[in-house]
From TrEMBL:
SMART domains: AAA (SM00382)
Name of the protein this chain belongs to: ABC transporter
Molecular function terms, GO-annotated: ATP binding; ATP hydrolysis activity; transmembrane transporter activity
Superkingdom in the source lineage: Bacteria
Similarity annotation: Belongs to the ABC transporter superfamily.
Keywords: ATP-binding, Cell membrane, Membrane, Nucleotide-binding, Transport
InterPro entries in the record: AAA+_ATPase, ABC_transporter-like_ATP-bd, ABC_transporter-like_CS, ABC_transpr_LolD-like, MacB-like_ATP-bd, P-loop_NTPase
Pfam families noted in UniProt: ABC_tran (PF00005)
Amino acid sequence: MNPASLLVQNLHKRYGDSSVFSHVNLRVEPGEFIAIVGESGVGKSSLLNCLAALDDWSEGTITHNGVDLGTLSETQRAHWRRAHLGFVFQAFHVLPHLDVAQNVGLPLLLLKRPDPARVAQMLEAVGLGGLGERLPAQLSGGQLQRVAIARALVHRPSLLLADEPTGNLDPGTAAQVMAVLQQQAADSGAALVLVTHSEAAAARAQRVLRLTASGCT
Ligand SMILES: Nc1ncnc2c1ncn2[C@@H]1O[C@H](COP(=O)(O)OP(=O)(O)OP(=O)(O)O)[C@@H](O)[C@H]1O
């Protein structure tokens, strides 16, 4: 049996004395697309930040392709993220002083594997061919999120996390961006974990899980 792309066992997250969620169990296979929904404040973003090893959890384990993320040092976590993770945020987080191609190429630069042909391929794939020299200020919200999607996948990560990626977009643009995100994740074989309030976005997933204070079902 192949190792699960992502295995979460009995995860419990507290901020100080305050419990956010507990007993979260989750298994995501390579290439699978799951959506996590739940009421505001239930801890969806906190869970995603734990899955990215950007935040610590209080109990339980997160394993990615057999690697127990809880055993990694901060430096090892940073290396793991660079090599294996793509993250798409609601607010795009595109760097304003870099042009579109430089933004998309950043993960490859950090891995010391610059590859302009791969950047051009990703820009074409997300419908931004020919716009590589534009600055982010010269793009629409939908185009900015396409830049973020291209950047998240350019280094062929096996895990793609998306936190409300269509939250800043109108419904029509949101549908187009979700289609690009889903297609690109599928083409690259990445497991996609989407956190969203959007029923339309969640409906695209193979599985929809609801996070509550006492688990994820
Ligand atoms: N750094 C922090 N320190 C303390 N409490 C926090 C911190 N970050 C989040 N929280 C709290 O943890 C709970 C979960 O927040 P989180 O943002 O993960 O929820 P969410 O489900 O993503 O919410 P939303 O759907 O509104 O974005 C909230 O009560 C929030 O106030």
